[in-house]
Amino acid sequence: MESFFATLKKETLYQMDTARMRREEVKSAVFRYIACYNLRRISSATGGLPPLVYRERFLRAIPTAAA
After folding, report:
1. Predicted TM-score (pTM) of this structure
2. Contact, 43 vs 50, CB < 8 A?
3. Strand-pair partners of 49
4. Which sign, positive or negative, has the C-alpha torsion 2, 49, 38, 13?
5. Are the C-beta atoms of 32 and 57 separated by less than 8 Å?
6. Using one digit for the tens of pLDDT, what is the confidence trace for 38-58?
7. Backbone angles phi, psi at 22, to 5 degrees
8. Any alpha helices (H) in the chain, and if so which ranges?
9. How distant, in Å, are the alpha carbons of 6, 27, 64 from that of 22?
10. Quick check: 27 and 18 in contact, CB under 8 A?
């Protein structure tokens, strides 16, 4: 987690003048970063896939319940 927050600060927050931004604007920037991070981050727990790609493949592989 510490590594994630260091990366978040370095790649996003330190690039902005957050002292002059409203709280909602900063929250929105952090949310956008996390959404992007989850699309590009590689995880060894998911076989080398980003978490969102792994979840999408997992959900497609589940057979639908018979009605």
Report:
1. 0.59
2. yes
3. 43
4. positive
5. no
6. 777 777 777 888 888 888 888
7. -75, 160
8. 2-11, 23-40, 51-61
9. 22, 9, 45
10. no
